[in-house]
Write a structure and sequence with these properties.
single chain; alpha/beta; Metallo-beta-lactamase, Chain A; 8-stranded mixed β-sheet; 22% helix
Length: 325
């Protein structure tokens, strides 16, 4: 299925609703602009929430804040990668908000292989793969949408219903990826999975190193703790141009009555301390993302949100445009 070609008119409703923030190399914010790049690839943040988004089901006080416009709906973490030159686009994470995030993508990009030229999966937790349901016979009924998956994720999708039906009915076509091995998408773009330690009950977990022209973006929405990884995250930050990193929780004790060792993530406070000796330029590359509904940096007027910015780091936002200038 084809969509209307890229045009300025297609951008107008999206600009009105989502105010794209253009981010220059090194993470410094520039003025918002209404015309997206047409001569080079770019990325868009399609969601910043942890798997269940914000507000979470049953959290009546959170829903009251949204109804009173004291808070905003936040969709689960996903990124869109667009190459306007080749008219291709890719999705990173298939979230429960897949339909809304696809609608966003449709407003500023197009592809001959609708809905996507490929979907990259990080792991088998609910906010990262269940959006594949929208590709099935009960919804879009797609044909051979490429889904890039590690061996464990591929096995999980192939052998567990209802996901296995997507495979057997050719709604999706599983594509192998391997830790540390780049997948070349076209002459401008490659994607390399990087396996990370996480709660791997069903599948392994990866982040992605996305190379666009001569720039690189590191995307790690989930990891247990930085010190458990066999790579030095501070060195990696220095080597890339952007780093969208796990910011699930701001600090320990954030969830009352819950042993947070059961849901290990690097607290934002921990990460900022670990990164404190980076240069100001390197700090500005770091954009925290994947916020649990308890994380106060969801709110721009919170003390914690301001603290992150004051220490030289960034906070990802829904609709944020990442340019590879």
């Amino acid at each position: 299925m084809k969509r209307t070609p890229f045009s300025t008119s297609n951008l107008e409703p999206l600009v009105a609703l989502f105010l794209f923030l253009l981010v220059s190399c090194g993470g410094q914010a520039e003025n918002t602009r209404s015309v997206l790049p047409t001569d080079k690839p770019f990325m868009v943040v399609l969601g910043i929430g942890q798997d269940a988004g914000y507000p979470q089901a049953g959290q009546q006080k959170e829903w009251d804040l949204v109804r009173s416009r004291q808070a905003s709906l936040q969709h689960a973490v996903a990124l869109g990668l667009v190459d306007p030159v080749s008219k291709q686009r890719w999705l990173f994470e298939a979230t429960p908000d897949f339909n809304i995030q696809l609608s966003k993508m449709d407003q500023f990009s197009t592809t001959e292989n609708y809905p996507y030229d490929g979907i990259f999966m990080t792991h088998g937790h609910i906010g990262h793969y269940t959006g594949l349901m929208h590709l099935g016979r009960e919804a879009m009924g797609t044909t051979n949408v490429p889904v890039y998956a590690m061996p464990g994720m591929k096995k999980f999708l192939s052998t567990n219903g209802p996901w296995s039906q997507l495979v057997s009915l050719n709604n999706i076509k599983l594509k192998d990826i391997a830790n540390g091995i780049p997948t070349q998408l076209n002459e401008r773009i490659s994607v390399t999975p990087l396996q990370v330690p996480h709660r791997d009950e069903f599948t392994e977990t990866v982040g992605f190193l996305i190379k666009v022209l001569d720039k690189q973006l590191l995307f790690i929405p989930d990891i247990d703790k930085w010190e458990k990884w066999d790579k030095d995250i501070t060195t990696m930050i220095q080597q890339v141009d952007y780093a969208l990193l796990d910011g699930s929780f701001f600090q320990n004790g954030e969830i009352p009555g819950r042993d947070m060792s059961e849901i290990p993530h690097p607290f934002v406070e921990e990460s900022m301390k670990l990164f404190e000796n980076l240069s100001e330029t390197d700090k500005a590359k770091v954009h925290f993302i994947h916020f649990n509904h308890t994380n106060p940096i969801i709110f721009k007027d919170s003390e914690e949100y301001q603290k992150v910015l004051e220490r030289g780091f960034q906070i990802a936002s829904d609709g944020q445009l990442i340019s590879f200038d």
